[in-house]
Structure formats: C-alpha cells, structure tokens
C-alpha cells in the first residue's frame, strides 16, 4: 500500500474520466439532477403537507373530518371562517395578539438601537460582562418569571392589559435584539461617525438620517425574530391576561368542550394564525436575505 501524491491522483482521475463517453457523463449528470430534484420535491412536500391538511380541515364540517379521511373537501364550507369573523371573542383574540406584539416590537427596537450602538462603539468597564449577562436572559425559560410578573402586574394594575404582555416579552426580546443589532453596527466603519460629526451633524440627526438607514437590513432581521417570539409565545401571554387582552392561542383552547372538539373551527383559527407571519416574512423578505448574509445571524 502506498499513497499517491497530488499529481498522480490527478492523472489517475483524468484517466478514469477520459474513459467515460459523453453519453455516460450526460447520463450521470441527469441522475444527479434527478436525485437532487427528487429530494427537494420530497422536502417541499413534507413541509407543505401539514399546512395543506390544516386548510383542508378548515373547509370541512366536523362530521366530514371525523367520518373519513379525504384529500379535499367533499362539501366545501366556509362556516368555520364565518363563525370566527362574526364572533367577537374570536376575532378580538387576533386583535389582542397583534396589539401586544406590535407594542413589544416598538418598545424593543427603541431600546435596543441605542443600547446596541453603545456596545458597538464604546468601551467601558464591564461591557463584555454586561453583554454576556443580557444573553443569559435568553437561557431562562419563561415559566421562571411567571409568578414575579403576575404579582407585580396585579399590584400595579397592569394585569390583563396589552402593555403587560408586551413588557414581559421585552425581557427576552431586548437582549436578542441588542445581540443581533450589535453585529450589524460593528460592521459599519467608525469613520462614518467621525465624518458626520465633522460635517456638523448632531448625534440624533446622524443616528436617524445616516446610521439607521445603513443597518436597515439588520433592523428587518431583528423585527422578524421579535415578531416570531412574541407571536408564538403563549405561557406569559396566557398567565398575564384574563378576559380583555386574551391572545388567540388562549381562545383556541375553547374549542374543547364536553361535547367534543370543534375541529373545523380550530383548523380555521390555525390558518388565520399563520397569515400574519406570512405577511411579515413577505414585507421584510429582502432585509432578511441581506441580514442573514451580512449580520451576526
């Protein structure tokens, strides 16, 4: 046994490759393309199948859902969607969820932008330790903070309000936003700051008109992650609300009654829950693509 050097290996490969005819190479390339497309198609099929089945169930009656498995609705009905849009307890769940998600995104981005700029541009005693301490907040499960938040908000009168859930989510979203934005801000040269000061820009004017547009891709990525966490988080939102600010996730549990589960309404509510996420991804898709390529994420 002996090891071939690079030249001998290349010569051996060229000899083997030269023995194959153009038809054989085309056949091998065709098999490779077919295998890649088959695996991609299988992956997309497995990803889309649960969503399709959810939509399929939302357009069926409970008797049809429980009767037999059908690939498409035999008796197409929109009663499940009509019931959601005509019942205030249902559609207000979506309104409540969107309100506290929007409040959380606004508060978080307003706090995280200057904080991330400070971590990116300045050096102070304990800056790295403070930055690491912020990240440790993401390591704790939300259940740890349920009792403190409940007692605090009940004492100050914030229980069952949208701002209560928004502030509770800030505990996790602000460190995440600072961590993402700091990576984007550090990629911007400090000479831009100095040039703006020489040109007579005040810090607020420079930060809003020059610096923020330069990191808009990072802001888009950050808003995407903020929305994703706040929209799907249920434990804090369920505990800190009772009636006036209940999220849609809590209201969906009402479909389970003594007479059984209203599968059609539950499926329709699930479809409507996916729609806001699709809209957010659509509007920030370009920023997300640039952000994943340029930023810390």
Q: What would your notes on this structure say?
A:
The protein is mostly helical. It has a domain at 87-293: Orthogonal Bundle (MetI-like fold), CATH 1.10.3720.10. It is built from 15 helices and 2 strands. The protein has helices at residues 6-19, 22-58, 62-67, 79-86, 88-121, 127-136, 146-156, 162-186, 190-198, 203-214, 216-232, 235-239, 248-251, 263-283, 285-294; strands spanning 256-257, 260-261. Strand 1 (256-257) and strand 2 form a beta hairpin. Helix 4 (79-86) packs across helix 5. The longest helix is centred in the first third of the chain and has 37 residues, at 22-58. The two termini are 47 Å apart.
- Bin the strand percentage: under 5%
What Rg, in angstroms, do the CA atoms define? 27 Å
In the CATH hierarchy, what is the superfamily of the domain at 87-293? MetI-like
Strand order of the largest sheet: 1-2
The total of helices stands at 15
Q: How helix-rich are the residues, as a percent range?
A: over 70%
Q: Averaged pLDDT, please?
A: 84
Order of H and E elements = HHHHHHHHHHHHHEEHH
Choose one word for the global shape.
flat
Structural class from helices and strands?
Answer: mainly alpha
Please outline the major beta sheet.
2 strands, antiparallel
Number of strands: 2
Query: Which CATH C-level class of the domain at 87-293 is it?
Result: Mainly Alpha
- Name the poorly predicted regions: none
